[in-house]
Amino acid sequence: MIRSIVRGFGAALPKRVVTNQEIEGIVETSDEWIVQRTGIKQRYIAGEGETSASLGEAAARAALQNGGLKPEDIDLIIVATSTPDNTFPATAVNIQNRLGITGGFAFDVQAVCSGFVYAMATADLYIRGGMTKRVLVIGAETFSRILDWKDRTTCVLFGDGAGAVILEAGEGEGKTSDRGVLTSHLRSDGAHKEKLYVDGGPSTTGTVGHLRMEGREVFKHAVGMITDVIEAAFEATGTTAEDLDWLVPHQANRRIIDGSAKKLGISLEKVVVTVDLHGNTSAASIPLALATAAADGRIKQGDLVMLEAMGGGFTWGSVLLRW
Predict the structure, then answer these.
(1) Is 210 a residue of the active site?
(2) Which of 74, 245, 268, 277 is the most exposed place for a label (fewest CB within 10 A)?
(3) Is 155 considered catalytic here?
(4) Which residue(s) pair with 139 in the sheet?
């Protein structure tokens, strides 16, 4: 059977690092409070000329170099983003042009923090269906552009960045020992919109708007929803928490990450955590964490890796793959 195998990975971050101490000068908060409640110590904030497309392009070029590929080797680009450069065209088409690719096709996926998981699942279906051979999957965000910098409950949480993974078609035997994506599970429930949303848009206010969040409500639902899709992946593949080499979660909050791992019986030593360095970068957080752990040698070929995320909507999902 056809499997979607990871061929390359890459990441890109803005130049500017913003520490908790700098945030203290913007809103009434403290480094101690931020670290205790979230685990975040710093985040990267996009400057002039740095956009979701430019960061996505940089991450894509890094992934191409890592995979020993050229832009023309890609026949589909999927970009997960909630902060596109323009309402249209898609940021994926923008990146396609920046890379000099004139063939294939490109489109965006909007599932907020779950976007990269949704995009990986979508890419896997295109590959297994025989429509594409190599897919560049990018998570790229500039959430700093939609933050209310007077709202201390949200502006301390988010950062900017991009990560990319290249999936390519390969042969598998239909076993969990196969390299590539083994199973994906996606969910959504629009009844929770008011808990995490942006209060603007082209069809309503005609403005971009700002992010609004009921933090306690999001936290209350997060662990249960994350557990749901991870257990679904285990059931679909006959694997267990003990079989996992790495859990790469959406980097929203250290307490959510630790709580989910504990509930599932996953050792914290198997959890990749970058929220302290990047903050919550929405759809970019999982590919940034993947690239970090793969680059430093933690994630190795043959490792069983679980990706999971939950975001506004609510949306949530998981992808289980063998690296």
Answers:
(1) no
(2) 268
(3) no
(4) 80, 163
